[in-house]
TrEMBL record, chain A:
Domain of life: Bacteria
GO cellular component terms listed in the entry, alphabetical order: plasma membrane
Secretion signal span: none
Sequence similarity: Belongs to the binding-protein-dependent transport system permease family.
Main location, first listed in the record: membrane
Keywords tagged on the record: Cell membrane, Membrane, Transmembrane, Transmembrane helix, Transport
Keyword Transcription regulation recorded: no
Topological type in the membrane: Multi-pass membrane protein
Native organism: Devosia oryzisoli
Matching PANTHER family: INNER MEMBRANE ABC TRANSPORTER, OLIGOPEPTIDE TRANSPORT SYSTEM PERMEASE PROTEIN OPPB
BP GO annotations: transmembrane transport
Protein's name in the database: ABC transporter permease
From TrEMBL, chain B:
Domain Solute-binding protein family residues, every copy: 67-448
Gene Ontology molecular function: any one: peptide transmembrane transporter activity
Signal peptide annotation: 1-23
InterPro entries the record matches: Peptide/Ni-bd, SBP_5, SBP_5_dom
Similarity field: Belongs to the bacterial solute-binding protein 5 family.
Full protein name: Peptide ABC transporter substrate-binding protein
SUPFAM superfamilies in the record: Periplasmic binding protein-like II
Name of a matching Pfam family: SBP_bac_5
Length: 309, 534
């Protein structure tokens, strides 16, 4: 097991380097630089001065190695769009709202989704199943900004129960968390339903029933555990996707989170921040999949990682 | 009753009675852009922190009727030869840290702007015409050669390369920079709320950098004209998008909001008294490459001039977002001339006649053309693409020609315009300073459009340095008549913005001006100091 984890960590490092190269090259192949977006561009002399100040006058490979050397020392540079702080300070500041809202969205949406999926599977082809499936399909297909608008319209404008948007008072969290929860809820409802139906049709369930085990024990102790594998697979990646913020949800609910930086860093050619965000996401996904694989082995005795023992 | 209880009771009643008086008035407003680096207007304009203009006091600014009003400058005068302006500062202005605000702080602001890569540096050349500005920004002359001088603590002297009769209005974007703080902290003084000092009607309380929203408080050290009438102003760029702003407004989280075209009728039905319109000082127009076929023929250009039905355009596809433009100057802008605007009529017969005169009867033999528009956000994004499609069908119908549309990124579009890589464009322009020379300057001798029309250039040059206001406007009117006669452009529309105000807002800034428009935060200094809230 330990050997397996070590081997996986090496492959994480390789992935990390390959991704960093691709991102760096793509980033610099987009035409234009940080000082070209204004209607009245700065003069050539001034532009050259500014580029030199940021080290952008150096050859690309020098810029790359300089940046990656910094990354090894946890120095991700200073964001062009916020010169008063380092990239790490910016991330630690802007990530808090995204983590709180997106994280709560997943932590609330996922269990509800599991319950919904279970209800659907246990009442297959009944009205409960139809309603649950319809909800799950809607949750996955309706764009999140539409969900957000509807939530604001219903709960803030018509019913006037909740504030429409803003941060940081906790009552302002409710609607964005609900908007975030829609996706994990829908995803989990669908996965749970499918996995449970699959497991319930297995022979060992028939055997358990024949042995006279109570239905409750069969479902909770055996069916659920065996259905958990796909749920584990999607959980961490989904958590990362949601807890790093959505530009739509954050814009609709006026949350000062990380989501907008994913777009603005590309828009204004904020190279240090763009690199940092991409590397961060890459790293987190690598670790998430590694953890998922380890957890598989722990919950499913049929999976043995680390070779054929 | 026990004595202490009595006291407590009296205190409780007193508190209850005074509470409404002590209650803070806070205005929550959409304003600014989502990214801001420095809270220093004289360091960066395009990436400035929201409200950086409200923190400092400009030499002069505009009221809601666009009358220039002295702010930090008590008075100003022009020398006989017209080249030197002298500004006298108010005597008792101070920075929020108690240091006196002096002429040196204004001079320093521009000296630093000329030498440190200020993104708005072109303004002080184009609009200001300050002596030596070009040479200093290009690094060929020393900063001491700039035409700027502090005669004494309260007197600023500015020398320009040519007489600039409108120079005082240019100073509405001249803010001081606290030299004593910059000497200590460098440009970083404007990065943190703790080190930012202000000279204007507001101080800064907090700054959320993730979305560039700020909370400003009424300054207790500012003693100049136009003091704030509310305790706090929250400026929040996340409220700018009408799709976010209107729900927040309806839920009571914002005191006003801008509206998109779809929201206007809804808001009108519910808040008829709160509706406010503003003509943005901007114009969309058609421009050409005057040198190449087929637009080197003045009759072709005249035909296009008469082929646009602006009234239909602005009452259908551009309803509630634009009004017809008959002149390059928008209504309300200094020098706007109704008679000139009235010349731009829709006259299909005349248009057809001009096409026939040019040798293209009913469009026969006219080459297929492609009109270049640029990718835009904001009001232009809502106006230009549908307008281009409307013109496409109208030109087909009236002139019998085929026009396709091509949308390009800003840099490519600018390159195409300057380099004459295409022969017809839709160009939008929003003013940079309040003087007719601004709009006429973009067609002047190789300016934005690479136009070289000697007759026009001569009139504009003469007008630019004419000190008699009436003569000056007359010269500009003559210049615009040349534009019309030679069909240099086709004015199309002026954008308008529509907003809805809460009935809790009051004060002079909440009501329309003489022209029926309410400029709101486009005149930030006037607006936020002349607004009250119940």
């Amino acid at each position: 097991m330990l050997g397996y984890i070590l081997r996986r960590l090496v492959s994480v490092a390789v992935t990390f380097i390959v991704v960093s190269l691709i991102i760096f090259l793509m980033m610099h192949s987009i035409p234009g630089g940080p000082f070209d977006a204004n209607d009245m561009p700065v003069s050539e002399a001034v532009r050259a001065k500014l580029m030199a100040q940021l080290g952008l006058d150096q050859p690309l490979y020098v810029q790359y190695f300089r940046y990656m050397w910094g990354v090894l020392h946890f120095d991700f540079g200073v964001p062009y769009q916020s010169p008063g702080e380092t990239v790490l300070q910016l991330l630690s500041r802007a990530w808090v709202p995204s983590l709180v809202l997106g994280g709560l969205g997943v932590l609330i949406g996922a269990p509800l989704g599991i319950l919904l999926g279970m209800a659907a599977a246990l009442n297959r082809n009944s009205w409960i199943d139809y309603i649950a499936s319809a909800l799950a399909t809607l949750g996955l297909t309706v764009p999140v900004f539409v969900t957000s608008m509807l939530l604001i319209l219903i709960f803030a404008v018509w019913l006037n129960w909740l504030p429409a948007s803003g941060w940081p008072d906790p009552e302002r969290w409710i609607l964005p968390v609900a908007a975030y929860a829609a996706i994990p809820l829908a995803t989990y409802a669908r996965y749970t339903r499918a996995a449970m139906l699959d497991t319930m049709s297995r022979q060992f369930v028939t055997v358990l029933r024949a042995k006279g085990l109570s239905e409750r024990r069969i479902i909770f102790q055996h069916v659920l555990r065996n259905s958990a594998i796909p749920l584990v697979t999607v959980f961490l990646p989904m958590f990362i996707g949601t807890a790093t913020g959505s530009i739509f949800v954050e814009a609709m609910f006026r949350v000062p989170g990380l989501g907008a930086y994913f777009v603005s860093s590309i828009e204004v050619r904020d190279y240090p921040l763009e690199m940092a965000l991409m590397l961060m996401i890459t790293f987190m996904y690598c670790i998430a999949y590694l953890l998922s694989d380890v957890v598989y082995a722990l919950i499913n005795p049929r999976i043995r990682i680390g070779g054929a023992e | 009753m026990h004595f202490t209880n009595k006291i407590a009771g009296i205190l409780a009643i007193a508190t209850a009675m005074t509470a409404p008086v002590l209650a803070q008035t806070t205005i929550v407003a959409p304003s600014g852009s989502a990214q801001g680096t420095y809270m220093d207007y004289m360091k960066t304009v395009y990436d400035r922190g929201t409200g950086s203009d409200l923190l400092q006091v400009p030499l002069a600014t505009f009221d809601k009727n666009f009358e220039l009003t002295p702010m930090a400058a008590q008075s100003w005068s022009q020398s006989e030869d017209g080249l030197t302006w002298t500004f006298k500062l108010q005597p008792d202005l101070v920075w929020s840290d108690g240091e006196p605000l002096t002429a040196e702080d204004y001079i320093f602001a521009l000296q630093r702007a000329a030498t440190s890569g200020y993104d708005f540096a072109w303004y002080w050349d184009f609009a200001g015409g300050i002596k030596g500005w070009k040479e200093v920004t290009e690094g060929t002359a020393d900063v001491s050669t700039l035409g700027l001088k502090a005669v004494d603590e309260h007197t600023i002297e500015v020398t320009t390369v040519a007489p600039k009769p409108y120079f005082p209005s240019v100073t509405s974007l001249w803010y001081p920079v606290p030299k004593h703080v910059v000497d200590k902290l460098g440009d970083d003084w404007a990065l943190n709320v703790d080190t930012i000092v202000s000279s204007g009607p507001f101080d800064i309380e907090s700054w959320e950098k993730s979305n560039n929203s700020v909370v400003l408080t009424k300054s207790d050290t500012y003693k100049g004209p136009w003091q704030a009438q509310v305790d706090k102003v929250e400026l929040d760029p996340t409220l700018n998008a009408p799709e976010v702003g209107l729900p927040a407004f309806l839920a009571g989280d914002a005191d006003y909001t801008f509206l998109n075209a779809g929201q206007v009728p809804v808001a009108e039905a519910r808040f008829a008294d709160g509706m406010r319109r503003n003509a943005v000082f901007a114009t969309s127009y058609i421009s050409y490459d005057l040198e190449s076929e087929p637009f080197n023929n003045v009759d072709v250009r005249r035909a296009f001039y008469y082929a646009v039905n602006r009234d239909e355009l602005t009452s259908t596809v551009l309803k509630d977002i634009a009004i017809p433009a008959g002149s390059i100057l928008p209504p309300g802008y200094p020098g706007y001339n109704k008679d000139i605007a009235a010349e731009a009529v829709f006259d299909p017969e005349k248009a057809k006649q001009f096409m026939a005169d040019a040798g293209y009867p009913n469009g026969e033999g006219f080459p297929d053309i492609e009109i270049w528009i640029r990718d835009e956000g904001g009001y232009n994004g809502a106006i230009i693409p549908p307008m281009a499609q409307y013109l496409q069908s109208q030109f087909k119908e009236v002139l019998g020609i085929n026009m396709s549309i091509r949308s390009l990124p800003n840099a490519d579009w600018m390159d195409g315009l300057r380099g004459a890589k295409n022969n017809i464009f839709i160009a939008p322009y929003e003013y940079d300073y309040l003087d007719p020379s601004n709009f006429y300057g973009i067609f002047y001798n190789g300016g934005r459009h690479n136009y070289h029309v000697p007759e026009y250039d001569a009139l504009v040059a003469q007008a630019d340095s004419e000190s008699d206001p009436e003569k000056r406007l007359d010269l500009y009117a003559q210049a615009e008549q040349v534009m019309i006669d030679q069909g240099l452009i086709v004015p199309l529309v002026h954008p308008i913005t529509t907003a809805v105000l809460s009935d809790k807002l009051g004060g002079d800034a909440s009501t329309p001006n003489d022209l029926g428009f309410t400029p709101l935060d486009r005149l930030a200094h006037y607006f936020f100091t002349h607004l009250t809230k119940q």
